[in-house]
Design brief:
Layout (H helix, E strand, L loop, with lengths): L1 E6 L3 H12 L4 E7 L2 H7 L7 E5 L7 H5 L7 E6 L5 H6 L4 E4 L4 H17 L5 E6 L2 E6 L3 E6 L7 E5 L4 E4 L4 H7 L5 E5 L2 E4 L3 E4 L3 E8 L2 E6 L2 H10 L3
Parallel strand pairs: 1-2, 1-3, 3-4, 4-5
Antiparallel strand pairs: 6-7, 8-9, 8-12, 9-10, 11-12, 13-14, 14-15
Pfam family, one: Response_reg
InterPro entries: CheY-like_superfamily, LytTR_DNA-bd_dom, Sig_transdc_resp-reg_receiver, WalR-like
Keywords: DNA-binding, Phosphoprotein
């Protein structure tokens, strides 16, 4: 199944793309945006594997947006202007579809994307240098991740049994690309939580099942991550 997100500054174009996607088998539109900044604020936390980006947009064009999208999410560009084609393919995108878009042409692009998505399915473990050497960590054992207080380049992983392992020199962008998006969410600039570790969720705070002193660990939700989290929980 291809789960896609649409970004286009024109609402009519979004509606038309949604209509086309509904006519293509094994394609689901997860969310649509008409603002590049809102799109970038949320895209890392959305469970999708393909992004359909319009190129010609005010403020920030699709080519600029694409540079900030995790490699795990494949990109299909749409535009009415053929002069962007060479620059678009320099970004190693899946396809470049000219407007007005036809269903058959879009289906071809999704077929290409589907093959790439199948080849890049995430493993159920991550492998990285840690405080105990090169280590394999199974993602279903991860409860919580936070920026190290000793060195902000490092990330402290708390496992379900309470063990803590330090990932050395790894930023959140690359770490999130390793983790299955459906199982984890970034809640602020310094913390990621496994969804299975969430006990109570509100608009400002998450209470986890992770013990802390005589209670449970509480996480404050950052403004930049609030919309994506609310969407995950259908709020």
């Amino acid at each position: 199944m291809i789960k896609c997100v649409i970004l286009d500054d024109e609402l009519l174009a979004i509606s038309y793309l949604k209509l086309l996607c509904e006519q293509i088998e094994n394609v689901e539109v997860v969310k649509a945006f008409n603002d590049p900044n809102l799109f970038l604020n949320e895209i890392e936390n959305i469970d999708c594997n393909v992004c359909i980006l319009d190129i010609e947009m005010p403020g920030m064009n699709g080519l600029q947006v694409a540079e900030h999208i995790p490699d795990s999410k494949k990109i299909i560009f749409t535009t009415a202007y053929k002069e962007y084609a060479a620059e678009a393919f320099d970004l190693n995108v899946v396809d470049y579809v000219r407007k007005p878009i036809k269903r058959e042409r879009l289906a071809q692009a999704f077929e290409k994307a589907g093959k790439l998505v199948q080849n890049t399915t995430k493993k159920d473990f991550i492998e990285w240098n840690t405080n105990i050497g090169k280590t394999i960590i199974f993602t279903n054992q991860i409860a919580y991740i936070r920026t190290s207080e000793i060195d902000s380049r490092d990330k402290d992983i708390t496992l379900r049994d309470g063990t803590t392992i330090v990932l050395k020199n790894l930023n959140y962008k690359n770490l999130l690309e390793m983790l299955p998006a459906k199982d984890f969410a970034q809640v602020n600039k310094k913390e990621i939580v496994a969804l299975s570790s969430i006990k109570v969720f509100s608009t400002n705070e998450i209470i986890t099942t992770i013990p802390e002193n005589d209670s449970f660990l509480k996480l404050q939700i950052g403004e930049a991550y609030k919309h994506a989290l609310l969407d995950r929980f259908g709020k």
